[in-house]
Amino acid sequence: MSPDRTEGEFVAAPGSAGLSRPGLRGREAELERLRALVEAVRDGEGGAIALLLGEPGIGKTVLLQETVSIARAHGFVVSHGRAEELHELAPLASLASGLLHGDPPLLSSTDFADLAGHHAQRIWLVERLAQLIEERSAGTPVLIAVDDVQWADPLSRFALSVMPARLLSSPVLWLLTGRDDPELYGQGPRTTTFPLRPLSETVLAELARDVLGGDVPAQVEELLDGAGGNPFLAAEMLSGIVASGADGPEPPERLVLGVRGRLADLRPDTLHFLRIGSVLGRAFSLADAAALCGRPASGLSAEVDEAIAAALLHDDGERLLFRHDLLRQAVYADLAPSVRRALHREAASRLVAAGRSSVDAVPHLLKSAEPGDQEAIGLLGTAATDVIAVMPDLAADLAVRALELVPPHAPMVFDVGERAIVALTRAGRYTQARDTGDALLSRQPPLDVFARLQYVLGDTLWHLDDVHELTRRSTAALAAVTDPAIRARLTAWQALARSRGRDLAAARETGERALAEAERAGDGEARVLALWGLGEIALNAGDCAAAVEHHTVLSVFDTAFLPEEAVARIHMDDFDTVRRLLRTAGDPPLRPAMLIWAQGTLNMGLGRLDDADADLVTAERLETDLHVPGNLVNIRVNRGLLAMLRGDREAAREHLDVVRATVADRPNTGNHATHRYFEAVVADADGDHAAAAELVRSAQRDHPFLRWRLLRPHVVQAVGIALRGGDRDLAEDLAAQAAEHATRNPSVPTAQGTAAHAAGLVNADHGLLERSVRILLTGPRPLLLAAASADLGRALGTAGDPAATPALTRAHDIYAQAGADAEADRVRDDLEQVTRRAGRRTRGPRPRPDQGWDALTASERKVVRLIAAGHTNRSAAEALVVSPHTVSTHLASIFRKLAVRSRVHLARIALAEGDAGTATGG
Q: In what order do the strands lie in the sheet with 283-284?
């Protein structure tokens, strides 16, 4: 379809004056603001979003079309698409309707075919689509217009909520029209909303003079009052007046009765054809209408011609369209409800018979299927399976509707219900999934079905963090199961649940039994679950080598678990292998948010705080985009700890507020431990040392501190909190745990060094502190080395040992280079006391400002150089060996710090600063 060739919302009846320019009556101010947006984007002010919102017929499409014309006149490449009510199931259809058309098209068919081949990877698909648009806009500004976006398919809606912000620095103008539903859109910076209000009486009178010529009779003015300021309704009434005078139906029924009057003059075959068309949607193919009419398409030419002559339809060369959706609705509303339902059901059957996909038939089934309709149940299930990877919420709706159509006592209810549980869980609707499963279980299914349903509910309960219920249910199901594969899967879920408990030895035995059962049953899914469980158990037990072994095998079986392998190797201090893993992740990568979380964890370990923060921001943004914030607590705790290292207490408290709210919503036991620890760090920094120590102890009561791998690198800090809080027993307990962890991991410098550091603090032993520094010098974590050096330097300084100065200097330099300003300041104060006694003074580095060129981090400056040199986000990411998502995060930060809106402005600033040298330089 080419929407550019459709006519506007104001349609003149045959013989009347044209209404295209008068169609803009009363919208002059909005049109000027839209013109200014077009010119700003053209002139390099960056991207922008314009939302035209209002009721049907209010003039949105006319303004959109006029803006499209203005943009073309200003040299824009234009994509003009339209979303359609009955096409909500076709992934990316709403955007594709414009991207593949135009002169020239914004995307080639080859580009789009490549995208379609990866439609299951939503984040990758949208990122790649954004890259293509970014590349297309490098030399020419781009306008992407989508009409009736309230009917956009879920994947297009997802793209429209993400891409405008992603492309804000590029000359791309997004122009979207829709009903009054602003939360549908991704409203980021530079979003201008145009709520289109009803036209005034004065404007309606001008519109009437445009059509009728001369003065407007009082009777016509009274009739126009009934249009409620809606320009389309007013135009329809004026067209009727031109054709038959001012006498006619009362305004409340003006449109349906007016269209009915127009229909009354048509031949019965044409009337039937239009009614069929109204069932198929605003735009429909002649072939589909012919099939539903039971006639060959070649035999409908007379009906098509008459409908076009009556100003009801338009032929765009590909499909037939009602000239306005209100016209289609008027024809549709004139059908009796039972007739509509029957026609929709027949449309679905004929589309399937003609070889069309379930995606084409299902919208009609949703309007027509009755309980017990076997074909509808099957098609809804097929459609749910087809779209679940890319549109999980829609898949869940379809699967639930299929379940609703199954008679209560039909044997198929359990199979259909199982698919509904899977779809609801995939969509993140966990409570509904559990309730659906419980409703099915209440019907007392056969034992094997009972076991299978409990296995499917395992994933639901895991995401609900209800490990106690998961353990109970899996145990009950294991007593009933006979299928070896389901038995292995249930045992694996039991192992995963027990990974959160205290008896990790029993959990390991369960995991090993699950893996053996999976091997005997030859079941790949059970094998993956068992390996996942064993990896989780090993990490929680602190057995890093076993965790790496299990996760390495797991990521071979299922590459979606590559982030888990990376994190396990980080705990082994195997940073080089982690870099290689992250560099070689597939394209498109699976679970990009978790991959970037792993990258952030690596950068935290390397002391690259700026890069780590950018990674964590990116990971959270990706999780937010997908509406699956499963790692939000860990992300925010790490960002809060980073903020504390930098001395930004306000930011740390903001992160803590998010953590508190998230933990209240999802009380995961691991989240509880990390949350309590973060609370302790903040309380300790505020001087409430006793409360901080009690917070650490409360986490200990529920689960040993070192159980939770996020906290292991912070055990020394926890020992310090305990000692400052006067809780020596807690400090000794933590040091003992660190020693046990070191015993389990003799080849890991971090485990050995932190154990020596913790023991050195508890025992005030200089020798242990010196040993800690020696070990950590061989490891990859500079911040742990800095902490050990600082504590050694303080201890030596207290003893008057001149070796304090080099130890403190090393600590200060590491902290300062990492951007850990708060810790650098603390160590500088210690160093000044030591050097003052020696007759020397130290000078600290100047703090980095919040705004301006000097506020940019080293990584941000690298991005600036690349963008100034003409790189796209993708090519900049390749040059820096990071994700394009991370480059987007850096750019957002750069634009905020430099107060710029576009790449053009950024390049000018880079040139003025003389910082456009070697692109990948420091």
A: 283-284, 320-322, 313-315
Structure tokens at 367: 């309007």
Judge whether 291 and 217 are in contact, CB under 8 Å: no
SS3 per residue for 337-387: HHHHHHHHHHHHHHHHHCCCCHHHHHHHHHCCCCCCCHHHHHHHHHHHHHH
Question: What is the CA 292 to chain-centroid distance, rounded?
Answer: 40
Rounded CA-CA distance 739/884 in Å is 41
Strand order through the sheet with 48-53: 77-82, 142-147, 172-178, 48-53, 191-195
The length of the chain is 922
Distance between CA atoms of residues 10 and 210, nearest Å: 12
Please, are residues 612 and 858 in contact by the beta-carbon 8 Å criterion? Answer: no
Quick one: tokens of 412? 């198929």
Tokens of 457: 């509910």
Q: Report the C-alpha dihedral over residues 545, 549, 552, 556, rounded to 10 degrees.
A: 180
Side-chain-side CA neighbours of residue 598 (13 Å)? 30
Q: Which residue has the tokens 């995606």?
A: 359
Instruction: List CB contacts of 85: < 8 A, sequence separation 6 or more.
Output: 148, 151, 281, 282, 325, 363
Dist CA 126 CA 519 (whole Å): 38
Write out pLDDT tens, residues 426-478: 998 999 999 999 999 999 999 999 999 999 999 999 988 888 999 999 999 99
pLDDT at 220 (0 to 100): 72
Q: Place 589 in a pLDDT band, splitting at 50, 70 and 90.
A: low
What stretch of H or E contains 176? Answer: strand 172-178
Instruction: Please check whether residue 644 is in contact with residue 685, taking contact to mean a CB–CB distance below 8 angstroms.
Output: yes
Contact by Cβ (8 Å): 50, 196: no
Examine residue 407 and say whether the peptide bond preceding it is cis (omega within 30 degrees of 0): no
| pLDDT score, position 22 | 52
Question: Rounded mean pLDDT of 728-755?
Answer: 96
Cβ(762)–Cβ(731) below 8 Å:
yes
- Supply φ then ψ for residue 732, to 5 degrees: -65, -40
Q: What confidence tens digit (pLDDT) does each residue in 814-839 have?
A: 999 998 999 999 999 999 888 775 54
Helices and strands, counts by H and E, the chain: 45, 8
Q: What backbone phi and psi angles, to 5 degrees, belong to 102?
A: 115, 170
Query: Cα dist. 897→259, 594, 851 in Å?
Result: 57, 27, 5
Q: What is the DSSP code string of 539-575?
A: HHHT-HHHHHHHHHHHHHH-GGGHHHHHHHHHHTT-H
DSSP label at residue 182: G
Task: Report if pTM > 0.85.
Answer: no
State mean pLDDT over 232-249.
64
Q: Is 117 exposed, middle or buried (0-12, 13-18, 19+ CB in 10 A)?
A: exposed
Instruction: Decide: helix, strand or coil at residue 16.
Output: coil
Largest Cα separation within the chain, whole Å, is 108
| Phi, psi for residue 443 in degrees, rounded to 5 | -85, 5
Q: Mapping DSSP to helix (H, G, I), strand (E, B) and coil, where does residue 266 land?
A: coil
- Output the CA–CA distances (angstroms, integers) from residue 370 to 278, 374, 398, 406, 425, in the order listed: 21, 9, 14, 9, 26
Token look-up 């019907």 returns 443
pLDDT tens-digit series, residues 861-888:
888 888 888 888 888 888 888 888 888 8
Q: Are 906 and 900 in contact (CB under 8 A)?
A: yes
Confidence band (pLDDT; 50, 70, 90) for 900? confident
Residues linked to residue 143 through DSSP beta bridges, in sequence order: 78, 173
CA dist., res. 3 & res. 822, Å (int)? 58
> How far is 812 from 809, CA to CA, in rounded Å?
5
Q: Which residue type does 513 have? A: R
